[in-house]
Amino acid sequence: MRTGIFIIALCSVLLSGCKDKEQSEDGQKQTWKLVEVQQSSTQVNHLYSAAIQGRQDIEIRPQVQGKIVELRVSEGERVHKGQTLFVIDPVPYRAALAQATAQVKAARATLATAKLNYESRKRLFSEKVVSEHDLQTVHNSLLDAEAGEALALATEKSARNNLSYTTVQSPSDGIVGVLPFHQGALVGPDIAQPLTTVSDNSLMHVYFSMDENGLLGLLRRYGSIDHAIADMDSVSLVLSDGGMYGKRGHIGSISGVINRSTGSVSLRADFPNPDRLLHSGATGNIQMVSQYENVLLIPQSSTVFLQDKTIVYKVVDGKAVATPITVNPSNNGREYIVESGLNAGDVIVAEGAGMVREGMDIK
């Protein structure tokens, strides 16, 4: 009795295995997820590595030599245009100015005497008391005195400028950088490091690069670089910690030259920085959003790549037809924008396209 039960069970297992094998080998009984191609709208986010700089970083260098006698700012302090940053010992420059002023007075006295002599000789010459040679000699002395006055005035102006340079002022509003020199340090125009750097961080320039295809896409969309700058939507800045910067920026410039070594073009986005959250030298990512209207969208899972071609399987009269398509290089990671090869209303295999073969029956 037990032997009969065992034989019946064995036959049941064998029959079940034969049935499963038949279904697995019969690919025509397999069902597929299909999708109808339709026009739709989508947004595509583009991320570009970016370098952040202040609107201007001005190196502060002394124009005269001397010891720093006053340091009136600290690192990181916000300063205004014309505010005093350093004072270099003015004593020798005050003395030089006093000496130059005295030379101006002496030159003017010499000039006044030369004018008197010349006028006197002119009268005597008109009365034929002195010769023309004597008159010309006095005239030359007058010219020499005039040149002496001009030289003295130039020396005085230079001395006055040098004295003014002992007070080092900020050329613009901004933030004070590192202060490598302190009170008592001897500085001059030939120092290797600047006294400090004043960074205007009220508006930040964020530089990033875009490949040639991206640039061509902008030109096709807006018609020209000028129109792109004027009409492009605002952009976002992703900070180095992954957080989104709270202010939006606008494209300020697009370079018209493509870098031959990288094949990319440089762009600049401008961001307001009222809270000083952004700093010169920082990095981040520019996020640009492209809006596409009335385009054909298909799942990326519906495509396969064969010999550098993107293929989908269109269902025609219940059979799979391999169809090459062209897709936009920009995508959202889930869907492709179809530029050619498909029409609205076409039905394609949505998943598992790599398992489909030409002419296969599709359910």
C-alpha Rg (nearest Å):
42 Å
Strand portion = 25-35%
Q: Work out the number of β strands.
A: 18
Structural class: alpha+beta
Q: How would you sum up this structure, described in words?
A:
The chain has 363 residues and is of the alpha+beta class. Helix content is 31%, strand content 35%. It is built from five helices and 18 strands. It has helices at 2-25, 91-126, 132-165, 212-222, 225-231, and strands at 34-36, 38-60, 66-71, 78-79, 84-88, 167-169, 174-176, 186-187, 196-211, 236-239, 250-254, 264-272, 283-299, 304-306, 309-316, 319-327, 335-340, 347-349. The strands form three sheets. Strands 2, 4, 7, 9, 10, 11, 12, 13, 14, 15, 16 and 17 form a twelve-stranded antiparallel sheet that branches. A hairpin with a 2-residue loop joins strand 15 and strand 16 (319-327). Helix 2 runs antiparallel to helix 3 and helix 4 (212-222) crosses helix 5. The radius of gyration is 42 Å and the shape is elongated. The two termini are 47 Å apart. The model is unreliable at 1-28 (pLDDT under 50).
